[in-house]
Amino acid sequence: MPRGSLMERGRTNSMETVAAVLNARSRYRDDIRIICDAGALDPALPGLVTVPAGLGKNARTRAVAALLRDFGPDIVEYHQQLGPAAELASGLPGPIHVLYRHTRIKPPGNPFERFRYRARLRAFDHLLFVSEAATEEFRADYPRFGGSVSAVCNPIDVEDWRGDVEDRDPLILFVGRAMQEKGLDAFCAALATVLDRHPDWRGALMLGDWEKHEAWAAPHVRALDRFGDRVQVHRSAPIAKVIELTRRAAIAVTPSRVAEALGLTALEAHAGGAALVSSGRGGLREASGDHALYVDPPEAPGLAEAMLRLVEDPALRLSMARAGQAHVIAIHSPVVRTGQLDDLRARLLDQRSVGSVSGQPTRSPA
Q1: I need a labelling partner for 174 at 20 to 30 A (CA). Which of 119, 300, 332, 342 fits?
Q2: Is 319 helix (H, G, I), strand (E, B) or coil?
Q3: Which helix (H) or strand (E) holds 202?
Q4: Distance between CA atoms of residues 127 and 229, nearest Å
Q5: For residue 365, is pLDDT > 70?
């Protein structure tokens, strides 16, 4: 896991949650070692292997490298951080090195960036993304990596999130970082329109990374102060509070302006039993399929129109909530996604074995 990851139960971020869900159900789970920073009072999984928290980047890299040499793994999966992961992979011959990206790899803005990314990417035998959309975007930017890239969509443990679709509060929910790219400003403006028209409805905002983005976000959130306690604002709330409100909200909105790698908040909304309004950008359409109202561009007028449609049509709202929940159970369950990841692991090991016998290289150029 990347630097700063504690894998603390109840406080895992989306990346840590995905790793915990997948590896807890893996057929290889008895042979998996998860390396993270020390400090979790209640670890999300048993048997975590830790390095001291607060180490500088270079010191942490050395500490992780020493653990990996002791373990002698067949496969190393590096979650997210490209630079430190590339350094580790380059210095550890032998294992199959997989970069597991939970967000997109930024398209190169100039030839220098392309060269720098290529140099780092050469360290890996395989790149794993959380959606086909992110995979195809990467292949377009780095076509010579085509045979060494695949996707396993994020899972959602529905039983952790499931709410009764028949019993919902008149509540519209936003969950995401307090950033412009997540569409927070557009959501706030659209929510005001809906609440003005429907006094019996309420809103809730679950805002991540508030401390980093307060200067930009605060004016948009303050514009909702006139609704008083009809709008709840939770800043950097624990996952338990997010689950609580997701189980109760009749409508959830994911108005991201960027091409999301997948969009775990969309999966969570479906699992919780909310009807969803989504921008559909990037992997968000893979998350929801036909079970969201899509608004693109995700700006206030279109979002308000979609939200009003769901508020004013209870039958549509209920049918979308039912179908969305059934969709994630069938398509995004941990059983399905863990099986895909384990099959990929087995395939990489088979390919390495064949390559070793034939003498062919197994690492593709970038």
Answers
A1: 332
A2: helix
A3: strand 202-208
A4: 46
A5: no
Tokens 């006094």, residue located: 199
Contact indicator for 324, 276 with CB cutoff of 8 Å: yes
Q: Hey, is 260 helix, strand or coil?
A: strand
Kindly report, residue by residue over 304-314, the tens digit of the pLDDT: 999 999 999 99
**Strand 126-129 relative to strand 35-37: parallel, antiparallel, unpaired?**
unpaired
pLDDT tens-digit series, residues 27-56: 999 999 999 999 999 999 999 999 999 999
Distances (CA, A) of 183 to 179, 277, 278, 285, 295: 7, 12, 11, 17, 12
Q: How far is CA 214 from CA 12, 107, 209, in A?
A: 22, 28, 8
Strands (E) in 80-201, as ranges, are: 96-101, 126-129, 149-151, 169-177
115 half-sphere exposure, CB direction, 13 A CA radius: 3
Q: Which two tokens stand for residue 176?
A: 């995401």
Tens of pLDDT along 189-217?
999 999 999 999 999 999 999 999 999 99
Alpha-carbon distances, residue 310 vs 61, 70, 97, 358 (angstroms)? 50, 56, 46, 59
pLDDT > 60? residue 290: yes
The answer, yes or no, to whether residue 169 has pLDDT greater than 80, is yes
Verify cis geometry, omega within 30 degrees of 0, for the bond prior to 365: no
Q: How many other C-beta atoms can be found within 10 angstroms of the C-beta atom of residue 109? A: 8
**Dihedral angle computed from the Cα positions of residues 34, 361, 338 and 118, in that order, rounded to the nearest 10 degrees:** 70
Calculate ∠ Cα 5-259-275, nearest 5°: 90
351 to 152, 156, 354, 361: CA distances (angstroms): 18, 29, 5, 10
**Distances in Å between the alpha carbon of 88 and those of 5, 81, 188, 217?**
17, 11, 43, 37
Of 253, 303, 261, residue with least CA distance to 286:
261
DSSP sequence for 28-68:
TGGG---EEES--SSBSSTT-EEE-TT--HHHHHHHHHHHH
Kindly report the number of other CB atoms within 10 A of residue 60's CB atom. 21
Contact 282, 136 (CB under 8 A): no
What's the mean pLDDT in 52-73?
96
pLDDT of res. 364: 46
Task: Identify residue 53 by its one-letter amino acid code.
Answer: A
